[in-house]
Amino acid sequence: MNRLANASSPYLRAHADNPVAWFPWGPEAFAVAAERDVPVLVSIGYSTCHWCHVMARESFQDAETAALVNDGFVAVKVDREEHPDVDAAYLDAASAFTPHLGWPLTAFATPEGRVFYAGTYFPPQPRGQLPSFRQVLAAVREAWTDRRGEVDATGASLREALASAAPAAADAIPDADALAAAVADVVSREDRELGGFAAGASLESPKFPNTPVLRLVQHPALAALVPDAAGVASRALSAMTASELRDPVEGGFFRYATRRDWTVPHYERMLTDNAGLIEVALAAGDDATAAETAGFLVDVLQLPSGGIAAAQDSESIIDGQRSEGGYYRTAERAGLAPPALDAKVVTGWNGHAIAALAAAGSRTDPRFVEAARWAADTVLENNVADDGTLRRASLDEIRSSAPATLEDYGGLARGLLTLGRVTGEVAYAERARALVDACLGDDGIRPPGGGDPVLAVQGMQPQGVPSDGAAPSGPSAFAAATLDLWRMGAGERYREAAETLVRAAAPAALAAPLAYGAILDVALGLATPPRQVVVVGETDAALADAARRVAADVVAVVTPAQAQDFARAGFELFEGKVSRGGAATAYDCRAFTCALPTTDPAALI
Question: Among 309, 384, 349, 297, which residue's Cα sits nearest to residue 473?
Fold first, then answer.
C-alpha cells in the first residue's frame, strides 16, 4: 500500500515507490506497531539533503534491506521541514546515543513513542567504526526480541531525562550591558582572515552563514555599545559574496561551505538562508547583493501559485547520473534541467521571505514588493485551515496535516507587518496582529491547539529553549513579531509577550550567543529604546527614500489616508501623523517620543 503518493511533502513523495512500506508521521503507525508488537523505525530527512538521497539509494531502494525493515519494524518517514517539532524531539533523544547529530536521522522507538536507539546515516556495508544499516536492524531486532526489559528501561529513562531538561527562565530580561558582553563574545570569534565565524579552526572546517547572528551584530543599538559589531556582518557578507558560496549566474547563496575559506560548497540553496541574507545585505548598505538575492527568490524559488519553494536540491542529473553540484560546475547550463525544487510552501519561511522581499523592493526594484504581496496572499489562502488556524505547509495547494508552529505564526506575522509598512496597507498589519493574538492565551504562548498531537500523547514534546539555526527558532520568530507590534503602538501586551520569551531563553542565549542570535536581537530591542520613523505624504519623495535607508527599528512610508487607517486600527504610532503643507513629512521618534516633523531628508541621517 502506497501511503506517501499524495503527501504534502516532496521528500515523502520521493520515497513513495520504495519497497519499504513507509507510513507518514501520525498515530496510525504507532497503533500498527503496537498491534504487531514491533518497534518503530523513524527516518527523518529533507528533500535537499545529500546524505538522505544517498541512504535512500543504498538502503531504502534495496529490496533485501526493505524486506528486513518491513518484517521487523513499522517504518515512518518524516520531512523535518514539515514537522519541525518531531525533528526537534527526536534530535533531543538522539543526542543520548551519538554526539554527531544530523540528517538523515535514524531512530528506533517503542509503539508508545519511547526512543531507545538512534543514529544518523548508516552505510550498506560496515565503514570504519560505522556499522551497516542491516547490522543496525539486526541488532535492534535482537534487543527487542531477547532483551525487551533493557529496551523499555532505556526508553523510559530517556523520556524522563528529556522531560526534566527544561531550564529555568531568567527573572528579568538581560540589560544592555549583559547583551553587549554577549555580542562582544560573538565579535571575538570572528574569522578576521576569511570572514564569518571560525576563529582558530582548521581550513577543513565547514562554515555556515549564520544569518541570525549576522543580523544580531547589525542591531542599531550596538553602534554605541560594541562599535565594530556591524563590521563583522559586512566583512562576512563581502567574503561570501566573492566566494564559491554564491552562485554567480543565478544569484543566491548555497547552504554552507565545507571549508573555512568558503570553498567547496554544499550546493542546496535554501529559502531561509537567502531571505536572511537579503536583510543582512540591506542593513549593510549592499543593495546590489540584496537585489540579486531577491531576484533568485523571485525568479527561481517563487512558484506559479505565488508561494515560495522551501529549497532547491543540491543534486542534479548530468549525463544521466545524479551529481552533487554538477549543474553549478558545468560551464554551459543552457539545455540542462536545473536541480529540482522542494515546492513545499512553508508558512513561516514564506513569512521571512515576504519581509525580506518587501524591504528589498522598497529600496531597489518594486517587483519584489509585488512578489511579496503575491506570496502573502497565496499563503493566507492555501495554508489556512477551514477553522482559521494555520497549517505548517502546503504543496500544490494541498494543505499539510502538520499544525503550524510558533515559527509559522511569528514568521508570517512579521512578514505581514513589514509588507503592511512598505505598502501602507493596514489589512496586512491587522492580519498579523490576529495571528499573534491567536497564540496569546491565559495558559501561555503557544499556537492554537498546542503542538504536534502525537508527541503530546507520547510525552515527547521538545523541551528546553530551541536555538536559532539557519533561521530564527519558533520562540525567536514569535518574539520578533510581538516586538514589532509593540513598536508600532499596538499595545503593551505585545512587549510583555516578547519579554516572556526572552526571559525563557536568556540563560542559554547569554551562555552561547552564537547559537541564539535571533532571540538576542529581540532582547536588544527590549533593552534599548526603539527608533521609529514614519513618513506621511508622497511615497516616492526624496524624504521617503531617505527614510527607507535609515537604521531604525520601524520604518513606515504611508499616504495621509493610510496613516489614518493605521491609527484607527489601533496602531498608535501613526496617531497625529499628517503631511505638513502637502509635502512628505517625516516623524523621527525614540520610544514613541518624536522630534519636530521635518521635510528635510538630511535630518534623518
Answer: 349
- For range 523-552, the mean pLDDT: 96
How many angstroms separate the CA atoms of 329 and 325, rounded? 6
pLDDT of residue 386: 87
How far apart (Å, rounded) are the C-alpha atoms in residues 356 and 210?
16
Mean pLDDT of the chain: 94
Name the phi and psi angles at 190, rounded to 5.
-65, 140
* CA neighbours closer than 13 Å in the CB half-sphere of residue 325: 16
Rounded CA-CA distance 32/177 in Å is 55
pLDDT at 599 over 60: yes
**Are 73 and 134 a contacting pair, CB within 8 Å?**
no
Q: Is 41 left (phi over 0), alpha (psi -120 to 50) or beta?
A: beta
Q: What is the pLDDT of residues 184-194, one digit of tens each?
A: 999 999 999 99
pLDDT of residue 138: 96
Question: How far apart (Å, rounded) are the C-alpha atoms in residues 273 and 179?
Answer: 25
Q: How far apart (Å, rounded) are the C-alpha atoms in residues 350 and 273?
A: 12
How far apart (Å, rounded) are the C-alpha atoms in residues 460 and 475? 18
Q: What angle do CA 208, 349, 355 make, to 5 degrees?
A: 95
The total of other beta-carbon atoms located within 10 Å of residue 596's CB is: 7
For strand 531-536 and strand 554-558, is the pairing parallel, antiparallel, or unpaired?
A: parallel
Distance CA 467, CA 561 (A): 42
- Band (pLDDT 50/70/90 cuts) for residue 335 is low
* Side-chain-facing half-sphere of 494: CA atoms under 13 Å: 27
Mean pLDDT of 450-476: 89
